[in-house]
Amino acid sequence: MSGAARTAARRGERRSLPALTSDRGIALLLSAIMAGLMLVFLVMPVAAILLRSLDTQAGPGLGNFTATFADPRFWDLLVNSLTVSLLSSTLAVGLAYLYAYALQRSNVPLKPLLRIVVMMPLFAPSLVQAQGLLLLLGRNGAFNRFLGFDLDIYGFWGVALANTLYTFPYAFLILSAALAVADARVYESATMLGARPGRIFRTVTLPATRYGIAAAVFVTFSLSVTDFGNAIVIGGNFSVLATEIYNKVIGQGQFALGAVIGVVLLAPAIVSKLLEKRISSRQQAQMTDKSVPLTTRANRMRDLVLSGYCYAVMIVFLAIPGIVATASFVKLWPYNMAFSLKHYAFDVQNGTEPLWNSVYVALATAGLGVTIATVSAIVVQKFRTPLSGPLSFLAILPSSIPGMVLGLGYVLAFNNPANPLNMMYGTLALIIFLYVYYNHAQAFLIASTSLKQISSSFDEASTMLGGGVVRTFFKVTLPLLWPTLLGVGVFFFMRAMVSLSAVIFLITPETQVAAVSVLQLADRGAVNQAAAFSMCIMAIVIACLLIVRLVLWLAGAKSVTLIR
Amino acid sequence: MDSKLCITALVALLLSVPAAADEITVYTSYEEDEAARFLELAKKDMPDLEVNMLRLSTGELAARIIAEKANPQHDVIWGFAASTIVTPQIEETLEAYRPKGIDAVPKEFRAADDKWFAVTGYMAAFCVNDERLEKLGLEKPTSWKDLLDPKYKGEIVMPNPASSGTGYIQVSSLLQMMGEDEGWAFLEKLDKNVAQYIKSGSKPCHAASAGEFAVGASYDMRAIKNIEEGYPISMVTPAEGSGNELEANALVATSNNKEAAKRFLDWTVTKTAADAYLEWKAIVTIPGGTMPQRFLDAGLPQDTNSVLHPTDFKAAAEDRKDIIATWQEKFER
Questions:
Q1: Residues of A in Cβ contact (< 8 Å) with B7
Q2: pTM of the model as a whole
Q3: Among A31, A218, A270, B112, which is least packed by CB within 10 angstroms?
Q4: Domain ranges (residues) in chain A
């Protein structure tokens, strides 16, 4: 909150004390509920796994930490993790900023298509991404085999490329929300003062999206640092800290040593929390009561250049699922290219039933997730309660926790007869909460980025007119915010349809989800059947997007986009 | 407020129905298609027994069993790597049980304290991509020793023994047959030709099948299944003898329904079960079965003992931690 807003809030306090007392009550109550939920579904599981890091043969102590830090291999892996994540994060944020800028501030044709295509990595299981890259750029990939190249993707550059593609959509979602609103008056005055477009971009656009850029860097960096899927498949002998957790936990059942590395990976969240104040304090709201929405002017040269860029990016994002889809429709890629539907006869346990389980879980996750992430964002950004500080840290913490670690934490915390919520263990409800909190950071940052663009003068006006926080929310904030929230809901839905690593420890024979079927098929060697199953998941996600779009259109909201 | 209501509703809606009397939960690492077939037969023989089966890979299942230790959810462990089941954290959750008809399983495939017994197993095998060999003008390797030839440099992938049971049996069998010093020296020479150590036992075979590398050290059934999928690969059992691993079954001490769990374990050593195993497994410890033609076509001999290295399972389990530590120090990058 800016200094001005704080003074304003204080002024408001004096003006209408009775309304504020109840407002204060609501603010505190909402903060407490959010904190309570985070305590149960985030802090408790994380604490359960982190306590393991203190488990040594000689009793509780720091022995695991000293042993890990004394190992030179640990420092090599740390350097590997940092360099590959910094590189892919820089690339992803840079590329996504230009892409989001093109979509929000220029007249590039076919915007809806451009928006959905770069989301592809989000709505396909991670297997598709890695498999697609190998089919394209592997030693026996399409480029080498059919086009005569001599590429070797395995190693540092392969992981950097894979992580850039994997984190691009997250960066895009946040940056797009940041670029969505702008005050035309600022741009007009800049133009009138004779500033050239380049200077306007540097002095107006960039500073106005500072919070969004910082959020995007943090999210993409954390995602790269905690992801082990790409590194395992494409890294070859290039190992990172996340693959070392996999080695320790899955390979050797040594939770304690895995947890030590888990603790190290929490560092990005702590650093970003420390930096957050500095970045936020310089961020001004874009939408004030006097704002004039920015309209894009015609500029053919700009549109031509940006179109070229956008379509080039689109081709890359289409090629990966495209080649996997092709492989799922031929007899045996790349040896027998005859058309075949045999990979679509799913003979996996429970057949296609897990698909429908997943749709149900994903819808519930979207509903619950949007509510929780939005209320958290409002509580942190708009209310000032003693809980705001801790909440803002906890809200972004999940992005620093590898899914595998969080999943194991859930088992340790909820499969404990002493836990009153023990009855939730083995139910889809717990899986839904896991999905909500696993993806909380990204959703929270998207909602926050949007909230920060809305001036608190709206809240003040509403308060002055006698509206309480609840009324202000429904009458002022929600109408401005709801397109973003819809996007957040879609985001949760997509994540719940496809994420695997966290949920693998919570599924039971009765609560199988689609991503697990993909894993089962891939594990038993039916790679193309796994690809086919992934295609069905993607088809369902796309169908759901279209249905929501249609409902919106019928409801009269023609200009709203699901993905901003 | 909304969210609170929402949660209460969700919890009420989704709580599972309590388990019926003759219902058991089985955790298995048999591959999904094998497990499904075995289970189908078990249900035919015991129609009144409700079996809920969860299938995860060995490492994932081990992590889950250890994490769930405070309140185990399963009654039976079925087809799970013997070298992992003897991890103290898992072994102490088991209860000794001698199934009816256990005498059909020779003693060396059972724990001395009856905490587990193994009816099936698997062995190390190379998946060799014939198309890639031909393109590179290489001959088909027939032994571990062949792989030392510099012409295979960069064309071999192996599982990482630190995260893969298959990788471990390959390394431990080489150490057992050559002795410590010579064994490590051999692995060091081999390392010069290895392109990657992959963190799973089946992925090296998939990589070879996809034509990414010429030779993927993996295991027998993975090779046979990929040949049946139509990949241009052949299976090679190393001439020195294949390292092998047992897949163990066990009763979980905390089971609420031990009678039913025991019935299921009894079934796993019946003739029906043994016949079903033979269809899917090259190593079945109950003697007297015949191997299906498709295994012979893939290159296995009728008597698998002729290609197996006689493994000291006890030593393999005991030395695991030290061997992995040494291996990581020497070869992990």
A1: 37, 368
A2: 0.88
A3: B112
A4: 1-52+347-564, 66-282+299-320
Contact B14 A349 (CB under 8 A): no
Q: Do B16 and A427 touch (CB under 8 A)?
A: yes
Q: What is the mean pLDDT of residues A64-80?
A: 93
Is A533 an 8 Å CB contact of chain B? no
Number of inter-chain CB pairs under 8 A, A vs B:
168
Can you state the angle between helices A478-498 and A527-554, rounded to 10 degrees? 160
What residues contact residue B149 under an 8 Å CB cut-off, 6+ apart?
B141, B193
Tokens of B175: 């150490």
Which residue in this structure is represented by tokens 């093109």? A102
What number is the average pLDDT over the span B56-76?
93
Place of tokens 């299906």: B292
Do A1-52+347-564 and A66-282+299-320 agree at the fold level? yes
List domains and CATH numbers for chain B. 20-121+245-297 (3.40.190.10), 122-243+304-331 (3.40.190.10)
What CATH superfamily is the domain A1-52+347-564?
Answer: MetI-like (1.10.3720.10)
Question: Pick from B15, B212, B232: which is nearest to A427 by CB?
Answer: B15
Sign of the Cα torsion B1, B7, B13, B18 reads: negative
Average pLDDT rounded to a whole number, residues B313-333: 89
Please tell me whether the peptide bond between A60 and the residue prior to it is cis, using omega within 30 degrees of 0: no
In Å, what is the CA distance from B216 to each residue of A441, B64, B311?
A: 40, 29, 22
Domain A66-282+299-320 classification at class level: mainly alpha
pLDDT over 70, % of chain A: 93
Closest by Cα among B318, B316, B329 to B167:
B316
Cβ-contact B73, B25 below 8 angstroms: yes
Distance from CA of B299 to the nearest CA of A (A): 19
